[in-house]
Amino acid sequence: MTNHPSLPIIENFSRRAAVKGAFATLGAGAFVAAISPLRQAAKNTTAAEFMQQHYTELSPEQKDEVIARLEAETKEKYGADVTIGDDRPIPGTKFVYAINLSVCNGNGKCVEACHQENNHDRATNQSYIRVLEMPKGTMDMEQGSTTYSGVVPKDDKFYLPVQCQQCDEPPCVDVCPVKATWKEEDGIVVVDYNWCIGCRYCEAACPYHARRFNWKEPEVPAKEVNPDQSYLSNRIRPVGVVEKCTYCLHRTRRGKLPACLEACPTGARVFGNILDKDSNIRWILQNKRVYILKEELGTKPAFFYYFD
Amino acid sequence: MSSIPASPIENETHITSYPKFIGRSLWLATEGSFAFYAWMTALTAVFLVGANAWANQVAGGMIGTNMTDQVSWGLYIANFTFMVGLAAGGVMMVIPAYLYHDRKMHDVVIIGELLAIAAIAMCLMFVMADLGRPDRFWHMVPGIGKFNWPISMLTWDVIVLNGYLLINMHICGYLLYMRFLGRKPNPVWYVPFVMLSIVWAISIHTVTAFLYCGLGGRPFWNTALLAPRFLASAFVSGPAFIIVAMIFIKKLTGVGGLDQPIGTLTKIIRVTILINLLMVASELFTEFYTGGSHVSAAKYLFFGLHGKTALVPWTWTAIAMNLIAALLFLWPGVLMFKWRPVLVTACVMAFVGAWIEKGMGLIVPGFIPSTLHEIVEYVPSQLEWKVTVGIWAFGLMIFTIAIKTALPTLKRTDFIDNQD
């Protein structure tokens, strides 16, 4: 074999190079024009937001800056004056929820309350809670319906509200490639909306359909914005990230009850600190025959159901 | 009249000769007939449509897709999954060439490696297209972001896919560079990487299957058979693509010595397509004979559920294509030169069949019914199709350019022939 591979002699090298260069320039120009809508998207993301570190790595000063920025952005975009807190878990607290299915009548007030409390997008009528209307005599969700209508309760049905179960073994947290979601000491699974990359793997992993994705920028009229917000819960979410029920941590970590519980007219919902020996929730778990959803999956929910 | 220096001066260092090699490759890759320019222009146009659609998706939010909270992955992840298979499929040339010392295969094995590069590039683009916040991509970069390794299977996938891309770029780049320098490639610099790439090819598709099959909340995916099935269908779709590509390369460029590799790949598909069908049958038996709520996704896929039948035509098309392709491959005539059109038909059917089976037929039914047993159907939006076709066009551009760059190597097969 030869050491010098023969190469074709190219005629009019410089002319061909010029033609190629012209076409390359044309192509690059067309590409820039094609992706020009990105300029609009870039305008919506400030440098400070782009560079922001993970929530758990922010110093107190950085957190203050971030929160001030978010409050200003809410004012600018939504015209609403809001206060965004940074509510941390209360030591010695483990929040647990229970629902009495004998009492729940499927009126859907909890769904509505969640929608308003958590500043969900109005157009899509988003909420963290879905209620299944189930035929009596089965626990098989396949027989249930989330799109029931008419007067409730119907005689042959019972109603099963489902929201984030705040699992002790949360599959959604395991799958996240960037640790944008994690479980806090009081048991609440949270999302850093400014760190989530929007891959939606957690949505695929959750067995309870607890997670929601912001397919569009949420729209909430200024007068309907709930101004009592928290960084890890109900502040208005950015587009393209995943969100979820946080047991209303902006309320519960301040000693209040979740909005869905307060809105429930039947008293079916019980919420509290399981580590508190005198709490109602503790009494229910000890004395009622409670069950959890999809126990066989080993997710260990902190959300219980029972019948009287 | 002028010409590019044909060969670097002997005492030149890599610092000067490597840029020359890159320039030379770029020049070669953009030289061609009128048909070549027309092909590349058409691909560029389609790619630009896709790029524009993607930019609109980023600007306006993913509401432009037809995905929902119930079906939260769609056409992008379907194509991503299929592309990982295509990338892994190239290894079916590497194994005969390097483990069984098939010399004819060895001469053209670079086609499979270049295909892997193009397919992985497409995989990464499909993942980017699926992200709600591509601007936060850096959060996934180890070191500056927060990489949830080893718990998240997605981080494993990032590692194996990028690793596979680098390995193949190294192998192809090294061989082509040596060819440019007019030197014999030193096996020490590439054979270990080739061996690594064989194991790595298996790993990319296994890890991709683990993304899905590790999710307990999705019974349709939660099967140990998923990774083996992925591999079997990858070893159908990969070789099928390469066979068709080789037939085109032979016709268009006059590269010789391709007929025997085509025969070898055909024989490989004869086996893998049957293994794949066997595993599909085994899966379906287990689903339907057991019954219960486990089977609802499969019921939806094959027969529809509660009157919702969006995927039924897709899946039966796939089944029909896979079966006909299997029969055509088993027919002895498929190996004969005069029946080349039949071989191409069989390859196209097997390719499309695998694309549906692994894409729309695997990703979407994982979400239907949803985990709360809602039945929300999914049909890709026009925007999703534009982005998808755009990425395919870009992948074909990479593949075309890569093959063009490698043509001198392919045409002078005696060069690599002498190596081991």
Automatic annotation (TrEMBL), chain A:
<dbReference type="InterPro" id="IPR017896">
    <property type="entry name" value="4Fe4S_Fe-S-bd"/>
</dbReference>
<dbReference type="InterPro" id="IPR017900">
    <property type="entry name" value="4Fe4S_Fe_S_CS"/>
</dbReference>
<keyword id="KW-0411">Iron-sulfur</keyword>
<keyword id="KW-0479">Metal-binding</keyword>
<dbReference type="InterPro" id="IPR006311">
    <property type="entry name" value="TAT_signal"/>
</dbReference>
<dbReference type="InterPro" id="IPR050954">
    <property type="entry name" value="ET_IronSulfur_Cluster-Binding"/>
</dbReference>
<protein>
    <submittedName>
        <fullName>Tetrathionate reductase subunit B</fullName>
    </submittedName>
</protein>
<feature type="domain" description="4Fe-4S ferredoxin-type">
    <location>
        <begin position="187"/>
        <end position="216"/>
    </location>
</feature>
<keyword id="KW-0408">Iron</keyword>
<dbReference type="GO" id="GO:0046872">
    <property type="term" value="F:metal ion binding"/>
</dbReference>
<dbReference type="GO" id="GO:0051539">
    <property type="term" value="F:4 iron, 4 sulfur cluster binding"/>
</dbReference>
<dbReference type="Pfam" id="PF13247">
    <property type="entry name" value="Fer4_11"/>
</dbReference>
<keyword id="KW-0004">4Fe-4S</keyword>
TrEMBL record, chain B:
<keyword id="KW-0812">Transmembrane</keyword>
<feature type="transmembrane region" description="Helical">
    <location>
        <begin position="311"/>
        <end position="331"/>
    </location>
</feature>
<feature type="transmembrane region" description="Helical">
    <location>
        <begin position="189"/>
        <end position="210"/>
    </location>
</feature>
<keyword id="KW-0472">Membrane</keyword>
<keyword id="KW-1133">Transmembrane helix</keyword>
<dbReference type="InterPro" id="IPR054823">
    <property type="entry name" value="DsrP-like"/>
</dbReference>
<feature type="transmembrane region" description="Helical">
    <location>
        <begin position="343"/>
        <end position="368"/>
    </location>
</feature>
<keyword id="KW-1003">Cell membrane</keyword>
<feature type="transmembrane region" description="Helical">
    <location>
        <begin position="388"/>
        <end position="407"/>
    </location>
</feature>
<dbReference type="GO" id="GO:0005886">
    <property type="term" value="C:plasma membrane"/>
</dbReference>
<feature type="transmembrane region" description="Helical">
    <location>
        <begin position="108"/>
        <end position="129"/>
    </location>
</feature>
<protein>
    <submittedName>
        <fullName>Polysulfide reductase, NrfD</fullName>
    </submittedName>
</protein>
<feature type="transmembrane region" description="Helical">
    <location>
        <begin position="230"/>
        <end position="249"/>
    </location>
</feature>
<comment type="similarity">
    <text>Belongs to the NrfD family.</text>
</comment>
<feature type="transmembrane region" description="Helical">
    <location>
        <begin position="269"/>
        <end position="291"/>
    </location>
</feature>
<feature type="transmembrane region" description="Helical">
    <location>
        <begin position="149"/>
        <end position="177"/>
    </location>
</feature>
<dbReference type="Pfam" id="PF03916">
    <property type="entry name" value="NrfD"/>
</dbReference>
<feature type="transmembrane region" description="Helical">
    <location>
        <begin position="75"/>
        <end position="101"/>
    </location>
</feature>
<feature type="transmembrane region" description="Helical">
    <location>
        <begin position="34"/>
        <end position="55"/>
    </location>
</feature>
<dbReference type="InterPro" id="IPR052049">
    <property type="entry name" value="Electron_transfer_protein"/>
</dbReference>
<dbReference type="InterPro" id="IPR005614">
    <property type="entry name" value="NrfD-like"/>
</dbReference>
